[in-house]
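Dear colleague,

Thank you for sharing your sequence with our group. We've completed the structure prediction you requested, and as agreed, I am returning the results in plain text so they can be pasted directly into your records. Please verify that the sequence below matches your submission; if there's any discrepancy, let me know and we will rerun it promptly.
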Amino acid sequence: MIQVIETKVCNIIKEILNSSVDIIGTTKFSEIGINSVTYIKIVIALEDEFQIEFADEDLDYTKYNYVTDVVKYIDSKLNTRMI
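Please find the predicted structure tokens below.
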């Protein structure tokens, strides 16, 4: 399941950045130009895609350095919802 989440997250990021750069789990946000405004756009798209809500304290883009960090967060939210 985590691989499916990662693929979707990477595709959403590429679409929002309008980029052809390869984005994978180990991609660092700072290396692909994600700033606070872009991060919020990504969060909104991820919330829509996965039907989850990021907690207010998790909206700080400096909290996540890598795509994998966000993938793990989404995975934990989805697993919590299934319980």
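Summary note from our side: The CA atoms of residues 73 and 79 lie 10 Å apart.

Kind regards,
the structure core
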